[in-house]
Write a structure and sequence with these properties.
Layout (H helix, E strand, L loop, with lengths): L5 E5 L6 H8 L6 E3 L3 E2 L14 E2 L2 H9 L3 E7 L2 E6 H9 L3 E5 L2 H10 L4 E6 L3 H10 L13 H16 L6 E4 L3 H16 L2 H8 L2
The structure holds adenosine-5'-diphosphate and guanosine-5'-monophosphate (5GP).
Adenosine-5'-diphosphate (ADP) binds next to helix 1 and helix 5.
Protein backbone atom coordinates (compact mmCIF):
# COMPACT_ATOMS: atom_id res chain seq x y z
CA UNK A 1 0.00 0.00 0.00
CA UNK A 2 1.08 3.57 -0.71
CA UNK A 3 2.82 5.21 2.27
CA UNK A 4 2.31 8.91 2.93
CA UNK A 5 5.03 11.56 2.70
CA UNK A 6 6.18 13.86 5.46
CA UNK A 7 6.23 17.62 4.88
CA UNK A 8 7.93 19.96 7.34
CA UNK A 9 6.72 23.53 7.58
CA UNK A 10 9.20 25.83 9.34
CA UNK A 11 9.40 29.57 9.68
CA UNK A 12 9.60 32.24 12.33
CA UNK A 13 7.03 32.33 15.07
CA UNK A 14 4.27 34.74 14.02
CA UNK A 15 4.86 34.35 10.27
CA UNK A 16 1.43 32.74 9.93
CA UNK A 17 2.12 28.99 9.84
CA UNK A 18 -0.92 28.00 11.92
CA UNK A 19 -3.16 30.33 9.92
CA UNK A 20 -1.95 28.97 6.58
CA UNK A 21 -2.15 25.35 7.77
CA UNK A 22 -5.69 25.81 9.06
CA UNK A 23 -6.69 26.88 5.56
CA UNK A 24 -4.66 24.10 3.92
CA UNK A 25 -6.43 21.49 6.04
CA UNK A 26 -9.97 22.52 5.03
CA UNK A 27 -11.68 19.43 3.55
CA UNK A 28 -8.47 17.38 3.39
CA UNK A 29 -8.86 14.02 5.09
CA UNK A 30 -5.82 12.75 3.17
CA UNK A 31 -3.59 15.01 5.31
CA UNK A 32 -2.59 14.50 8.93
CA UNK A 33 -1.43 17.36 11.16
CA UNK A 34 1.05 16.22 13.78
CA UNK A 35 0.03 17.73 17.13
CA UNK A 36 3.20 18.51 19.08
CA UNK A 37 3.79 18.32 22.80
CA UNK A 38 4.96 21.55 24.41
CA UNK A 39 5.79 22.94 27.84
CA UNK A 40 4.63 26.41 26.73
CA UNK A 41 1.36 27.59 28.30
CA UNK A 42 -1.67 27.74 25.98
CA UNK A 43 -2.48 31.03 24.24
CA UNK A 44 -6.08 32.23 24.37
CA UNK A 45 -8.18 30.06 22.08
CA UNK A 46 -5.69 27.17 21.96
CA UNK A 47 -7.20 23.77 22.78
CA UNK A 48 -5.30 20.92 24.43
CA UNK A 49 -4.99 18.00 22.00
CA UNK A 50 -5.91 20.15 18.99
CA UNK A 51 -3.23 22.83 18.77
CA UNK A 52 -0.73 21.20 21.13
CA UNK A 53 -0.54 18.59 23.85
CA UNK A 54 0.22 20.98 26.71
CA UNK A 55 2.46 19.32 29.26
CA UNK A 56 4.89 20.12 32.07
CA UNK A 57 8.67 19.74 31.99
CA UNK A 58 8.65 16.49 34.02
CA UNK A 59 6.19 14.81 31.63
CA UNK A 60 8.18 16.11 28.64
CA UNK A 61 11.42 14.66 30.07
CA UNK A 62 9.64 11.34 30.68
CA UNK A 63 8.62 11.24 27.00
CA UNK A 64 12.24 11.93 25.99
CA UNK A 65 13.46 9.04 28.18
CA UNK A 66 10.85 6.74 26.60
CA UNK A 67 12.09 7.69 23.11
CA UNK A 68 8.56 8.90 22.29
CA UNK A 69 9.70 11.81 20.09
CA UNK A 70 10.65 11.79 16.42
CA UNK A 71 12.44 15.06 17.30
CA UNK A 72 12.36 17.70 20.01
CA UNK A 73 13.93 21.09 20.65
CA UNK A 74 13.99 24.05 22.97
CA UNK A 75 12.55 27.28 21.53
CA UNK A 76 12.63 30.63 23.38
CA UNK A 77 12.54 28.98 26.82
CA UNK A 78 10.07 26.16 26.15
CA UNK A 79 10.31 22.57 24.89
CA UNK A 80 8.50 21.31 21.82
CA UNK A 81 8.44 17.75 20.43
CA UNK A 82 6.80 15.58 17.76
CA UNK A 83 5.27 12.36 19.14
CA UNK A 84 6.55 9.57 16.87
CA UNK A 85 3.68 7.10 17.17
CA UNK A 86 0.93 9.14 15.49
CA UNK A 87 3.16 10.25 12.61
CA UNK A 88 4.04 6.64 11.79
CA UNK A 89 0.43 5.49 12.05
CA UNK A 90 -0.80 8.20 9.68
CA UNK A 91 1.90 7.42 7.11
CA UNK A 92 1.05 3.72 7.26
CA UNK A 93 -2.55 4.69 6.44
CA UNK A 94 -1.28 6.44 3.29
CA UNK A 95 -1.78 9.96 4.63
CA UNK A 96 0.65 12.81 4.09
CA UNK A 97 1.89 14.18 7.39
CA UNK A 98 2.53 17.87 8.10
CA UNK A 99 4.92 18.86 10.87
CA UNK A 100 4.94 22.52 11.97
CA UNK A 101 8.37 22.56 13.64
CA UNK A 102 11.32 24.92 14.02
CA UNK A 103 14.68 24.52 12.28
CA UNK A 104 16.64 22.44 14.85
CA UNK A 105 13.87 19.85 14.99
CA UNK A 106 13.63 19.87 11.18
CA UNK A 107 17.34 18.95 10.96
CA UNK A 108 16.84 16.04 13.36
CA UNK A 109 14.02 14.69 11.16
CA UNK A 110 16.15 15.05 8.00
CA UNK A 111 18.88 12.93 9.58
CA UNK A 112 16.41 10.21 10.54
CA UNK A 113 14.22 10.39 7.42
CA UNK A 114 16.10 11.89 4.46
CA UNK A 115 13.07 11.69 2.14
CA UNK A 116 11.20 14.35 4.15
CA UNK A 117 10.25 17.54 2.22
CA UNK A 118 11.05 20.84 3.95
CA UNK A 119 9.16 24.07 3.22
CA UNK A 120 10.28 27.38 4.75
CA UNK A 121 7.62 30.07 5.28
CA UNK A 122 8.95 33.64 5.34
CA UNK A 123 7.24 36.96 6.07
CA UNK A 124 6.92 39.60 3.32
CA UNK A 125 9.03 41.96 5.53
CA UNK A 126 10.47 42.24 9.06
CA UNK A 127 8.08 45.05 9.95
CA UNK A 128 5.13 42.87 8.94
CA UNK A 129 6.50 39.99 11.06
CA UNK A 130 6.79 42.32 14.05
CA UNK A 131 3.23 43.53 13.46
CA UNK A 132 1.88 39.96 13.26
CA UNK A 133 3.78 38.93 16.42
CA UNK A 134 2.56 41.97 18.32
CA UNK A 135 -1.02 41.71 17.18
CA UNK A 136 -1.34 37.92 17.35
CA UNK A 137 -4.38 37.04 19.36
CA UNK A 138 -6.05 40.43 19.11
CA UNK A 139 -8.16 38.97 16.29
CA UNK A 140 -9.90 36.55 18.67
CA UNK A 141 -12.56 38.04 20.85
CA UNK A 142 -11.29 36.68 24.17
CA UNK A 143 -7.73 37.90 23.86
CA UNK A 144 -5.36 40.82 23.64
CA UNK A 145 -1.80 40.55 22.26
CA UNK A 146 -0.51 37.31 23.76
CA UNK A 147 3.27 37.76 23.90
CA UNK A 148 4.98 40.44 25.99
CA UNK A 149 7.15 43.03 24.12
CA UNK A 150 10.26 41.22 25.47
CA UNK A 151 9.01 37.89 24.10
CA UNK A 152 8.24 39.52 20.74
CA UNK A 153 11.80 40.93 20.58
CA UNK A 154 13.27 37.49 21.46
CA UNK A 155 11.16 35.89 18.73
CA UNK A 156 12.31 38.52 16.20
CA UNK A 157 15.98 37.88 17.03
CA UNK A 158 15.38 34.15 16.66
CA UNK A 159 13.56 34.75 13.35
CA UNK A 160 16.64 36.40 11.82
CA UNK A 161 18.79 33.40 12.83
CA UNK A 162 16.20 31.02 11.37
CA UNK A 163 16.11 32.84 8.05
CA UNK A 164 19.85 32.09 7.63
CA UNK A 165 18.98 28.39 7.39
CA UNK A 166 16.23 28.85 4.82
CA UNK A 167 18.44 28.10 1.82
CA UNK A 168 18.97 24.54 3.12
CA UNK A 169 15.22 23.93 2.70
CA UNK A 170 13.64 22.38 -0.41
CA UNK A 171 11.12 25.21 -0.92
CA UNK A 172 10.62 28.85 0.13
CA UNK A 173 7.11 30.32 0.44
CA UNK A 174 6.44 33.98 1.29
CA UNK A 175 3.25 34.37 3.31
CA UNK A 176 2.06 37.70 1.93
CA UNK A 177 -1.52 36.51 1.53
CA UNK A 178 -2.83 33.30 3.07
CA UNK A 179 -4.49 32.28 -0.23
CA UNK A 180 -1.26 32.51 -2.16
CA UNK A 181 0.78 30.67 0.49
CA UNK A 182 -1.79 27.83 0.56
CA UNK A 183 -1.80 27.65 -3.24
CA UNK A 184 2.00 27.37 -3.30
CA UNK A 185 2.10 24.68 -0.60
CA UNK A 186 -0.55 22.67 -2.46
CA UNK A 187 1.50 22.98 -5.65
CA UNK A 188 4.64 21.78 -3.85
CA UNK A 189 2.82 18.78 -2.39
CA UNK A 190 1.38 17.87 -5.78
CA UNK A 191 4.78 18.19 -7.50
CA UNK A 192 6.38 15.96 -4.87
CA UNK A 193 3.82 13.27 -5.66
CA UNK A 194 4.72 13.48 -9.36
CA UNK A 195 8.33 12.37 -8.77
CA UNK A 196 9.22 9.40 -11.01
CA UNK A 197 10.08 7.03 -8.15
CA UNK A 198 6.60 7.27 -6.68
CA UNK A 199 4.72 7.25 -9.99
CA UNK A 200 6.70 4.32 -11.40
CA UNK A 201 6.08 2.33 -8.23
CA UNK A 202 2.31 2.80 -8.76
CA UNK A 203 2.65 1.65 -12.40
CA UNK A 204 4.46 -1.50 -11.43
CA UNK A 205 1.88 -2.54 -8.80
P1 LIG B 1 2.61 31.16 13.57
O1 LIG B 1 1.77 29.91 13.63
O2 LIG B 1 3.60 31.13 12.45
O3 LIG B 1 3.27 31.47 14.88
P2 LIG B 1 0.04 32.55 13.36
O4 LIG B 1 -0.67 31.68 12.37
O5 LIG B 1 -0.32 32.44 14.81
O6 LIG B 1 1.64 32.38 13.22
O7 LIG B 1 -0.15 34.05 12.83
C1 LIG B 1 0.33 35.17 13.56
C2 LIG B 1 -0.59 36.35 13.29
O8 LIG B 1 -0.46 36.76 11.92
C3 LIG B 1 -2.08 36.05 13.52
O9 LIG B 1 -2.68 37.17 14.14
C4 LIG B 1 -2.62 35.84 12.09
O10 LIG B 1 -4.00 36.17 11.99
C5 LIG B 1 -1.75 36.80 11.27
N1 LIG B 1 -1.53 36.36 9.87
C6 LIG B 1 -1.17 35.13 9.43
N2 LIG B 1 -1.02 35.12 8.08
C7 LIG B 1 -1.29 36.36 7.66
C8 LIG B 1 -1.31 37.01 6.36
N3 LIG B 1 -1.00 36.35 5.23
N4 LIG B 1 -1.61 38.32 6.31
C9 LIG B 1 -1.91 39.02 7.44
N5 LIG B 1 -1.92 38.48 8.69
C10 LIG B 1 -1.61 37.18 8.82
P1 LIG C 1 4.69 28.74 19.06
O1 LIG C 1 5.07 28.88 20.51
O2 LIG C 1 4.70 30.06 18.34
O3 LIG C 1 3.43 27.94 18.87
O4 LIG C 1 5.84 27.87 18.37
C1 LIG C 1 7.17 28.27 18.46
C2 LIG C 1 7.99 27.47 17.48
O5 LIG C 1 8.00 26.09 17.85
C3 LIG C 1 7.47 27.52 16.04
O6 LIG C 1 8.58 27.80 15.18
C4 LIG C 1 6.93 26.12 15.79
O7 LIG C 1 7.10 25.73 14.43
C5 LIG C 1 7.85 25.31 16.68
N1 LIG C 1 7.31 23.99 17.05
C6 LIG C 1 6.02 23.65 17.28
N2 LIG C 1 5.94 22.34 17.56
C7 LIG C 1 7.20 21.84 17.48
C8 LIG C 1 7.76 20.53 17.64
O8 LIG C 1 7.10 19.53 17.90
N3 LIG C 1 9.11 20.42 17.49
C9 LIG C 1 9.90 21.49 17.19
N4 LIG C 1 11.20 21.25 17.04
N5 LIG C 1 9.40 22.72 17.02
C10 LIG C 1 8.07 22.90 17.16
Amino acid sequence: MYKGKTFIISGPSGVGKSTVLKELFQDRDDLYFSVSATTRPPRPGEINGVHYHFTDVDEFRKMISEDAFLEYAEYVGNFYGTPKKFVDEAMEQGKDVVLDIEVQGALQVVHKRPDVVRIFIAPPSWSELERRLTERGTDTEESRGTDSPEKVQKRLVRAKVELQTANTYDYFVINDTVERAVREINAIMLAEHCKPAERMAILSE
